Amino acid sequence: TYAYSASKAALHQMTRMLAGHLGHRNITCNAIAPGPFETKMMAQTLRDFGDAIVGNIPLGRIGQPEDIAATCIYLASRAGAYTTGAVIPVDGGSLVIKAKA
Questions:
Q1: Catalytic residue at 4?
Q2: Given the residues 2, 4, 74, 82, the one annotated as active site
Q3: pTM
């Protein structure tokens, strides 16, 4: 919906603003932007259009909880200490153009 899309855009902008305001304290602020995952909100959509959705994901699958967990672990670890203000897509490549084989 329009409201849902607007709320996501607002969170992305808030992430960047907080990163700028908190960086001098060595506080990082990032957002994870999940693509299609099996959730209550996506259940009916995946039942109705799951094959089409998966067909448009370059990695060819719906996201798993481990995909989000791994991103959280990265951001919480020393490896992610220099990452701030980022909106990290965890979407199997949904935002890129899929090459035709």
A1: yes
A2: 4
A3: 0.88
